Predict the 3D structure of the following.
Amino acid sequence: MQNNTALLVVDVQNDFCRGGALAVPEGEAVVPLVNRIARKFATVVLTQDWHPADHTSFAANHPGAKPFETVPMPYGAQTLWPTHCVMASPGAALHPALDIPHAATILRKGLQRHVDSYSAFLEADRVTRTGLDGFFAARGITDIYVAGLATDFCVAWSAEDAQKFGFRATVIEDACRAIDLNGSLEQAWQRLTAAGVRRTSSGDL
Ligand code: VGL
Ligand code: ZN
């Protein structure tokens, strides 16, 4: 890959893999693919979903609510999740088989108690920037490939925002797995296509 191209590896963490608190079906299957793909990229950024225990995206912090219900938040509808990726917990750790020693940085997101952040660029309030756009821009990155978990949430939101910030974004479809909640995967692809995000498979890189 050329020097203007980066790989963003989204949330390949224990809680999103088999046995985890919010296990994505076959989530762990992306690990060998991502390890292999990453070797083609000089610039790799990893993300970690990283929430305080009292985060408002957790159903457990809403009396009477159950996971996968939706509640209104000031910034819009928020899906409630099982408690997951509590900062510094074993579930929040990167999958132990993830092997990307040359990753330049690890971006943590979702740290603010009252604001979720599926996207690695913009929190759910759609105002607070993580700074990742500046990181890539300062390094002359123009093209960002995205892989990881989950296709229809953090991967999709990150790819869409990468495109909004002026990068050419491409989702590596087979190196992602989805939660697929009430048609969310199909909706995500529709949004991504409308935003101009491309899709490819790891064999074509
Ligand atoms: C994610 C739901 C809640 C993800 C993170 O990584 O896609 N999904 N937090
Ligand atoms: Zn989360």
Residues 76 and 125 are 8 Å apart (CA to CA). Residues 49, 51, 57, 81, 84-85, 110 surround zinc ion (ligand 2) (CB under 6 Å). Helices lie at 30-38, 132-138, 151-164, 184-195.
